[in-house]
Design goal:
Layout: E1 8-13, H1 17-32, E2 36-37, E3 46-51, H2 56-75, E4 80-85, H3 86-98, E5 104-106, H4 114-124, E6 128-130, H5 141-145, H6 149-154, E7 166-170, E8 172-173, H7 184-187, E9 192-193, H8 196-208, E10 213-217, E11 225-227, E12 233-234, E13 237-238, E14 241-242, E15 262-264, H9 265-275, E16 281-285, H10 294-301, E17 309-311, H11 319-324, H12 331-344, E18 349-356, H13 363-376, E19 380-385, H14 393-397, H15 404-429, E20 433-441, H16 443-453, E21 465-469, E22 475-479, E23 488-497, E24 500-505
Parallel strand pairs: 1-2, 1-3, 3-4, 4-5, 5-6, 7-10, 10-16, 17-18, 18-19, 22-24
Antiparallel strand pairs: 8-9, 9-14, 11-15, 12-13, 20-21, 20-23, 21-22, 23-24
The protein binds 5'-deoxyadenosine and iron/sulfur cluster.
Amino acid sequence: MSPSSQRHVFVETFGCQMNKLDSELVAGQLRGLGYRFTDRREIADVILYNTCSVRQQAEDKVHGRVGDAKALKRERPNLVLGVIGCMAERDGAALLEKYPQIDLICGPGELDKIPVLIDNAVRTRQPQTALQGHQARRSSTLAAAADNLEMLDLSRSVSPTDHNGSAYVRITRGCNKFCSYCVVPFTRGPEVHRSPDQILDECRRLADAGVIEVTLLGQTVNHYRFDHGAAVRLAGVEQPQVGPGGAAFRDPDHRLNTGRRITTFADLLHLLHEQVPQIRRLRFVTSYPRDFGDDILQVMARSPRICRYLHVPAQHGSDVVLRRMNRDYTAGAYIEFVDRVRDHLPDAMLASDFIVGFPGETDADFAATCDLLRRCRFKNSFIFKYSPRPGTVAIDKFEDDVPESVKKRRNVELLAIQSQVSQEIADEQVGRRVEVLVEGASPHARKQRRQVELGWDREEEVDSQLSGRTGGDLIVMFQGSEELVGQIVPVRIQSAQPLTLFGEMIAVPATAGG
Ligand code: 5AD
Ligand code: SF4
């Protein structure tokens, strides 16, 4: 095979924002070694699928891709095929057995090893594996400190040209929650928190490269808590540490009177807001509805650059089902939380996730979910049919007894209710001026451009519709030049669909005008 400087890599990412960030970091690392990137699988020397295990459907897509790659490998035996991410961690050995065309398997905790794995695969033509396995849940501060994955975040290279104004920054990895249906605690291991200094440093570097929106990432982002007194230092630098158990959050101040210096999530938000004012939008996902203290809401209320947007999955509206899901809160407690949010941040937009068809879900349980959704007025919800996952408590303990047809019907019904609520919220925006961070050409304009490339449409027919988001994460489309990508512009909203607002730009900002 050609040296790395001439190898082309194709990466396809499935699943959550955490996976998108992982792919970006892996790509950055490979780019630094001279690899080039392509969006054409047919010419790639290395194909990497960064996978998701949360639902069977996500895994099925990857099975399809890997199956297809067999033919590519037959044509080009030197091609390196890698399956990385959660599915690799969950199912690594079985995947290798089933698909001899796979050269490389790498879990989400070992992504810093990808360049070595590729090199070894090329050299030895033997399948390469890097998985955390049982180590994933060892819970000592030192284990976290010794993990090399931090290097991947730290080595992030940001050039002023390879972003559209927006970037993700990881603050915690893994999850300690063990909701009964979820594979994440198994695939991503225990909660590990990065030190505030490292996070601040990364945010500063992104801001220096022109990033104006940072989204802090964590599976349960509000559980962020860094205990400086317990931190392990290497060369004077505080290393990542394993997160505390739930007890840490029963203390309203989240400080447990240890006498040691603690940085809570509220402290971290305040720190980033004050220290990096060039970041004009600070966001975070995903929050866990319990343990979301008023301290966080208070910091948000007095920090204009923290977006009024919370993604806080409720998952269900029935207490019986929430208990079976091991969510540790009741529907009443969730509503109380939403009321607290509205008190502190009257203009906040909320979004949720729901699972329909969880084992034992009755019509009455489902009706409770519908009520909760209406009551909380989410601007949007991601609605999923329950998918039993190997290795989870739910698959062993509860029979998947809601028929597929019922899951489907409940899914459609809940979507219809959400769509109605979304339309009401969108209608309230009509006539208002909103600030939009421009992300790029709208999907419609992108489609038209592809038609031109294929010779099916004429250049002058291409629409110049742009797409962006408000601070509350509402999607806005309007006409404008692509030079505005990465900038925040004022837009007057003229009409609304459930998930999209349409408007007109009010004035061209000085930097973009002539
Ligand atoms: N089946 C269906 N949906 C699931 N989710 C997580 N695990 C499952 C599962 N086994 C959903 C939850 C979570 C989102 C990322 O995916 O709603 O918030
Ligand atoms: Fe999965 Fe629950 Fe952790 Fe979210 S909080 S990642 S649903 S275990």
